[in-house]
Amino acid sequence: EVVMTQSPATLSVSPGDRATLSCWASQSVNSNLAWYQQKPGQAPKLLIYDASTRATGIPARFSGSGSGTEFTLTISSLQSEDFALYYCQQYNDWPPLTFGGGTKVEIK
Amino acid sequence: QVQLQESGPGVVKPSETLSLICTVSGGSLGSYYWSWIRQSPGKGLEWIGYIYYTGSTQYNPSLKSRVTISVDTSRNQFSLKLSSMTAADTAMYYCARINFSWKGVNWFDPWGQGTLVTVSS
Fold it and tell me: Measuring CA to CA, which of A9, A41, A93, B49 is 20 to 30 A from B40?
């Protein structure tokens, strides 16, 4: 099973600042990685797939990078609606499809 | 656009079987993979399994012995049965569509709003 690890668990950021979230895989997942955003009381929402491709309707301030075992989600200038939980998910080696433990982006 | 809605009991007794249904609207089940995912405070997001519209399935090995996913194309629904429920199965259960390509199944989009299932006597 590919274990996904996210860091940090909580990230305190001021509105307008840049946020950098990390996701590591226990073995190479190539570029087969997705990022999701989850707000309180809502289901996760797809942000990024194939490590760096924004999903339909996702603002350009969200960007993904990385391949192999190290990945980054960057939010270039945090807006109030961006404070949420973020998860990574690999789809290179399954079953099972696996998720990271999440990073909470909170207001500093 | 496609929307998914989970339905089922909010409370299940220990040792009983959970039955959930996901109803798909705004599109058909055809030519897609459909999945169940759960989220609990202790284990985060956990993929349960998926089904193709033809009925072929793949399950998480950790749950395989207890899981059955089936599809009803005439009703545009797919369902989850999870047997021998324990407190550890208390979670929010989501259904979602899986994107797929020549590489296989990929990411989940869209998701249903989720349904909270509590295991309690």
Answer: A93
